[in-house]
Design a protein that fits this description.
Blueprint: E1 2-11, E2 14-20, H1 38-50, E3 69-75, E4 81-87, E5 94-96, H2 110-113, H3 118-125, H4 129-140, H5 146-155, H6 160-174, H7 184-202, H8 206-261, H9 273-306, H10 312-316, H11 318-326, H12 328-341
Helix pairs in contact: 4-5
């Protein structure tokens, strides 16, 4: 990976600074007086590639932490290029190198970095005076391992010797030529043997398998018999429930049948008896109503006749009165014709 450009937009004491690198050059030297920003530029490259540390005050003594911005244009060995920026945050910190600062994928730098992390980058490419002094001190304390320490100093891996010692100590705790209780290898062997013995004790023998298979067959037969009995009981229960629902209706039918039995002497009647009886009853009701009305008329006439006073003198001349009354029609007509005659 090569840098074509480094943009120190807002970082530390720098604002809007840009470093351009010659793509054809094999070596670049950045120089300047103290406090010119060389260490800030080196730190900015690490933060650009691997993200800002969580420390709030990290190079934010001039700019607000949320406004820190670093940018660059880089190219991979295969010719792939990328222009991007980095902001401070925990998510979507890689941005496109444009005014909109569109978020890029978090793994956008993977093709350029490979397996490189911040620690390896710092020790291999970002050595400062303090790291150089620590490397020299480690060489003086090497005890003859100059080759290892030279490699460590050249690559920045100053912890290689300590790492090897740590690995040797861990290997001694894992295994040794003589079995010891604290060796984890032998502890694992013991656990393995115990597991094998437990497996042997818990394994299923063929006789036990056959016995279990027979018991399973017997249980399945019992289950089938119980299920058949359950189905039979269920059918009987449904029948009883149906009879329980029909019981009130059957009781009513029985009561009606007992009532009809009291009319057994009507079996010899004609089929039209009911209609004839209905008509006769209707006539009976009409006659009764007419009789009632006639009775009321008789009572009314009786009351009226009781109030009549008979004059004996009038009875003596009743025939004459009747004859004269019969002539009232002619008198009435003559009276009506008199004006015309006159």
């Amino acid at each position: 990976m090569r840098f074509h450009r480094l943009d120190l937009l807002r970082y530390g004491a720098l604002t809007g600074r840009r470093l351009d690198f010659n793509p054809s050059a094999n070596l670049h030297i950045v120089y300047g007086p103290n406090e010119a920003g060389k260490s800030s530029a080196l730190s900015a490259i690490g933060d650009l590639l691997f993200g800002y540390p969580r420390a709030t005050a990290h190079y934010s003594f001039l700019h607000d932490p949320a406004q820190l911005r670093i940018g660059a244009a880089i190219a991979a060995r295969n010719g792939e290029a990328l222009s991007f920026r980095r902001r401070r945050g925990t998510k979507n910190t890689l941005l496109a190198d444009d005014s909109a600062e569109t978020a890029l994928r978090e793994d956008a730098l993977s093709p350029f970095l490979g397996a490189l992390n911040r620690d390896i980058f710092k020790r291999a490419f970002g050595l400062d005076s303090r790291d150089l002094r620590e490397g020299g001190r480690a060489m003086l304390e090497s005890g003859g391992e100059i080759g290892t320490l030279l490699f460590s100093a050249a690559s920045g891996l100053l912890g290689l010797r300590r790492l090897r010692q740590t690995l040797d100590d861990e290997a001694g705790q894992i295994f040794g030529p003589r079995k010891k209780q604290e060796h984890r290898f032998y502890q694992a062997v013991d656990r393995y043997e115990n597991a094998r013995r437990a497996e042997s004790q818990n394994e299923l023998r063929s006789g036990d398998w056959k016995k279990l298979t027979g018991e399973e067959t017997e249980l399945q037969a019992r289950i089938a018999a119980l299920q058949a009995e359950r189905q039979k009981t269920k059918t009987q229960l449904e029948h009883l429930r149906l009879l329980k629902k029909l019981h009130p209706l059957m009781a009513e039918i029985d009561r009606e049948a007992a009532t009809l039995a009291g009319f057994s002497d009507l079996d010899g009647l004609s089929p039209d008896f009911a209609e004839d009886l209905s008509q006769a009853l209707a006539l009976r009701r009409s006659a009764a109503e007419a009789c009632r009305r006639e009775g009321e008329a008789v009572e009314q006439l009786s009351r009226e006749s009781a109030g009549i006073v008979v004059n004996a003198d009038l009875l003596a001349v009743a025939a004459e009165i009747t004859a004269l009354f019969s002539e009232t029609g002619g008198f009435t007509k003559a009276k009506r014709d008199l004006p015309a005659i006159e």
